[in-house]
Amino acid sequence: MRVPPNKSARYTDALSFYQGFMGFTKIKNYCNRKNRPTDSHRCEPIELKQSCLICKSNQTIRRGISYRRTVRHLDAFGCRVYLKLPAIRLSCKAYIAAFVWHYEFVAPNKRYTKAFETTLPKQAIGATITHTARVTETPATTVARIVKTWKKKEASRVQQACQHKASHCQNLVLGLDDFAIRKGHTYNTGLHDLRNGTFLDIIPGRTILEL
Ligand SMILES: [Zn+2]
């Protein structure tokens, strides 16, 4: 991404960058701290109303804005980017249910957009949580939480891919390897696809009966 030479150019670029982005209009850049380049953007949804989350009816009434949430988004133009999202209260005519505007790109009560969260595990590969936290200027607890969730998902995706490959393999060669969880007490057996060089599964125990 090109870094504009001065602040006003950066401002103009950032504005055009955010036009129509995430379904927002009227984005106003209002904060620029000197030492730590930060861009905060006040955002307003393009649509005036959102359909009811419960009954999907579009017969909803806008009840005003309670407060603005600050959500961190992807860095742009050498700046940390924060979106100030209005918590717009709405109510539905059909069921008289009240709800707050739902933003697709950020989970409720989260302080980071989904796009920002997906960049963290990539940064954390081959680095420590502490290092990633420092580089991304994100709390270590946040990095740890996001990386943990990603690992879980990624591990099961990779395992499924390996198992799929093994099940379609013509001359499958299985490798069995037992390893201790607690030496002398608990053992598990690892199952490998030796032809493809992948790990397939863990079976608790190591005796014939258990396998
Ligand atoms: Zn409704």
**Care to count the β-strands?**
8
Class per helix and strand makeup: alpha+beta
Oligomer: single chain
CA gyration radius, whole angstroms: 25 Å
Q: Which residues form runs of ≥5 with pLDDT under 50?
A: 1-13
Distance between the termini: 54 Å
Task: Tell the overall outline.
Answer: elongated
What order do the helices and strands follow?
HEEEEEHHHEEE
Strand content: 35-45%
Distinct small-molecule ligands in the complex: zinc ion
Task: Give the SSE layout.
Blueprint: H1 7-18, E1 24-31, E2 38-45, E3 60-76, E4 79-92, E5 98-100, H2 114-124, H3 129-136, H4 140-167, E6 174-182, E7 186-193, E8 198-204
Parallel strand pairs: 2-4
Antiparallel strand pairs: 1-2, 3-4, 4-5, 6-7, 7-8
Helix pairs in contact: 2-4, 3-4
The chain binds zinc ion.
Could you characterize what this model shows?
The chain has 211 residues and is an alpha+beta fold. It folds into 3 domains: 7-111, no CATH class; 121-168; 171-204, no CATH class. Helix content is 28%, strand content 35%. The chain has 4 helices and 8 strands; from the N terminus they run H-E-E-E-E-E-H-H-H-E-E-E. It has helices at residues 7-18, 114-124, 129-136, 140-167; strands spanning 24-31, 38-45, 60-76, 79-92, 98-100, 174-182, 186-193, 198-204. The strands form 2 sheets. Strands 1, 2, 3, 4 and 5 form a 5-stranded mixed beta sheet that branches. Strands 6-7-8 form a 3-stranded antiparallel beta sheet. Helix 2 crosses helix 4 (140-167) and helix 3 packs across helix 4 (140-167). The termini are far apart. 14% of the residues are buried. Residues 1-13 have low confidence and may be disordered.
